[in-house]
UniProtKB/TrEMBL annotation:
SUPFAM superfamilies attached to this UniProt entry: Cysteine proteinases
Higher taxonomy: Bacteria, Pseudomonadati, Pseudomonadota, Alphaproteobacteria, Sphingomonadales
Protein's name according to its UniProt entry: CHAP domain-containing protein
Domain Peptidase C51: 4-125
Keyword Lipid metabolism found: no
Domain of life from the UniProt record: Bacteria
Origin species: Sphingobium olei
UniProt entry keywords in alphabetical sequence: Signal
Alphabetical list of InterPro entries matching this protein: CHAP_dom, Papain-like_cys_pep_sf
Signal sequence bounds: 1-23
Length: 245
């Protein structure tokens, strides 16, 4: 078991240093954000902020329907874009985005937390579905791009945009509980709907969070930070995962 864990960890560490080639043929964040927000900008996510100048209003205050533009950072060499779906309070919003936690994954109404010193949303942490908790990494952003008309548009999977899956969706009532509770960077684990699971019937709540199957390919994506992950730490995580499974 230990030998297998070490071998897996070595593969994982080497994968972190590679480009996210598994994203090829998968739904990317840009077309998803464009369709959901109605902000008609094309090109890599890192170019959206500059492209929006003169076309859309920009700012540091979250608004429903606005696009949060992430700066290139770590493995996010091309940046990232997400759409604000709901305001919980001045430091918490729900977002909809694609290709964050796994290749082509669509995550709807998941938490983004402002951790900037000035409260200007220049540094955020984002919900990480595979672990069912807030991601550990702090992500720098440009700010928000506001569409002419704030409206959330439905997204219908289109093979022409690449393969996609509805990776996770968190019950909004649980986020309300977080917003009403003490403000903290460390949030309790939230109920997450795993792939292929049926949502609970109206009025019924889950007693515990369904477990998402681990997928090592997620290490190539947003939460992978090679410079901050030692081999021993990765081995410990793999061992822990083996025990939990």
């Amino acid at each position: 078991m230990v030998r297998k864990a070490i071998r897996t960890a070595v593969i994982l560490l080497s994968g972190m240093m590679a480009a996210p080639s598994l994203g090829a043929g998968m739904l990317q964040c840009v077309p998803y954000a464009r369709i959901v927000s109605g902000v008609e900008i094309r090109g890599d996510a890192l170019t959206w902020w500059d492209q929006a100048e003169g076309l859309y209003k920009r700012g540091t205050k979250p608004k429903k329907g606005a696009v949060l533009a992430f700066r290139p950072y770590g493995p996010m060499a091309l940046g990232h874009v997400a759409v604000v779906s709901r305001i919980l309070d001045d430091r918490r919003v729900l977002i909809r985005h694609a290709n964050w936690s796994a290749p082509g994954a669509i995550e709807e109404d998941v938490l983004a937390l402002d951790v900037s010193a000035e409260g200007d949303w220049s540094q955020v942490r984002v919900w990480y579905s595979p672990t069912g908790q807030m991601g550990a990494r702090t992500n720098p952003t440009y700010g928000f791009i506001y569409p002419a008309k704030a409206k959330l548009h439905d997204f219908t999977p289109d093979p022409a945009l690449g393969d996609s899956i509805r990776f996770a969706n968190v019950d909004r009532r649980d986020w309300d509980a977080v917003a009403a509770g003490p403000r903290s960077d460390t949030l309790r684990r939230m109920p997450v709907l795993a792939l292929g699971r049926t949502p609970p019937a109206p009025g019924k709540r889950r007693n515990s969070a369904p477990r998402l199957e681990a997928d090592l390919s997620i290490a190539r994506y947003a939460e992978a930070v090679p410079a901050e992950r030692t081999l021993s730490a990765i081995i410990a995580d793999v061992k822990r995962e083996a025990v939990l499974n």
